[in-house]
């Protein structure tokens, strides 16, 4: 089987228990009062384990207290007090080990939810923690966490009171929350200097395109044409700002997807080869061994899901 891929409506039952006691966010909000393309809830009533899966929406997870283990792609992270994590559409996500005292907030939104404020393709540029090349975890200072909690409370008020124009207010508050998180992100050095602004638009756009189209577009020239630059220019920019070539970014995504399928699904090697658009299993085996040092079968045997 393939890794499951969910949209916002489909995923609610995956992360929420049927019985809801909290009045926060969407926990007990009438269906008619929900704003399309958005969801917010607290960790009260959340499932302790979820995934691995992929989703079509952006996710912001804010820990106020307690801990949980999060896996993004093939990387493991621990959420603690004041930790924020970010996931973008198509990313492999799982969580486990939610502590008994854990409490936090989750905000989910579709790529076009903020289109009146920001075009969907600008989201990973304006908020680089949502970019493939971004840092998906960061620790907030107490004052920064207070700001995030205050903005989530304001969003909750709009959801619960259901005043005219509350959908616009929620979008504005969400944008303010993202800006507050961006300030913390930049304060911690997770940003590029002003002289790098031009490449800052090119490289994240390239990496986002790769994360979306790596199965069908394997040549740097394909992406250069979309971005309106030459392959050499694109390659120089990617190498300068990531330390790898543009083609290595494509290879990296293929390897990551292959590892996830081998680790989390029971699909045969031949089926995975076909899903990744290799001409035959032998070609997939050669590619995987060249880039990991082991065969797909050997990787599957030692990569037992935890």
Automatic annotation (TrEMBL):
<dbReference type="InterPro" id="IPR037923">
    <property type="entry name" value="HTH-like"/>
</dbReference>
<dbReference type="InterPro" id="IPR009057">
    <property type="entry name" value="Homeodomain-like_sf"/>
</dbReference>
<dbReference type="Pfam" id="PF12833">
    <property type="entry name" value="HTH_18"/>
</dbReference>
<feature type="domain" description="HTH araC/xylS-type">
    <location>
        <begin position="204"/>
        <end position="302"/>
    </location>
</feature>
<keyword id="KW-0805">Transcription regulation</keyword>
<keyword id="KW-0804">Transcription</keyword>
<dbReference type="InterPro" id="IPR018060">
    <property type="entry name" value="HTH_AraC"/>
</dbReference>
<keyword id="KW-0238">DNA-binding</keyword>
<protein>
    <submittedName>
        <fullName>AraC family transcriptional regulator</fullName>
    </submittedName>
</protein>
């Amino acid at each position: 089987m393939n890794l499951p891929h969910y949209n916002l409506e489909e995923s609610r039952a995956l992360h929420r228990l049927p019985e809801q006691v909290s009045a926060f966010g969407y926990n007990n909000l009438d269906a008619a009062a929900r704003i399309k393309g958005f969801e917010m809830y607290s960790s009260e009533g959340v499932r302790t384990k979820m995934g691995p899966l992929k989703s079509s929406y952006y996710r912001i997870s804010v820990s106020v207290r307690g801990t949980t283990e999060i896996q993004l792609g093939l990387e493991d992270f621990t959420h603690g007090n004041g930790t924020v994590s970010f996931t973008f559409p198509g990313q492999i996500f799982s969580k486990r080990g939610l502590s008994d005292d854990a409490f936090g907030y989750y905000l989910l939104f579709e790529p076009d939810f903020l289109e009146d404020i920001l075009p969907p393709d600008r989201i990973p540029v304006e908020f680089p923690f949502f970019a493939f090349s971004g840092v998906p975890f960061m620790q907030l200072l107490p004052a920064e966490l207070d700001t995030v909690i205050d903005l989530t409370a304001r969003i909750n008020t709009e959801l619960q009171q259901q005043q005219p124009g509350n959908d616009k207010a929620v979008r504005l508050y969400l944008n303010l929350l993202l800006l507050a998180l961006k300030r913390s992100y930049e304060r911690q050095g997770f940003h590029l200097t002003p002289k790098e602004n031009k490449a800052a638009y090119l490289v994240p756009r390239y990496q986002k395109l790769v994360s979306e189209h790596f199965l069908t577009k394997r040549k740097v020239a394909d992406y250069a044409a979309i971005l309106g630059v030459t392959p050499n220019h694109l390659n120089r920019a990617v190498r300068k700002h990531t330390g790898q070539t543009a083609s290595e970014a494509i290879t990296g995504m293929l390897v990551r997807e292959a590892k996830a399928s081998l680790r989390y699904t029971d699909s045969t090697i031949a089926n995975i080869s076909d899903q990744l658009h290799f001409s035959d299993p032998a070609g997939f085996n050669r590619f995987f061994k060249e880039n990991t040092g082991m065969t797909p079968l050997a990787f599957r045997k030692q990569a037992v899901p935890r």
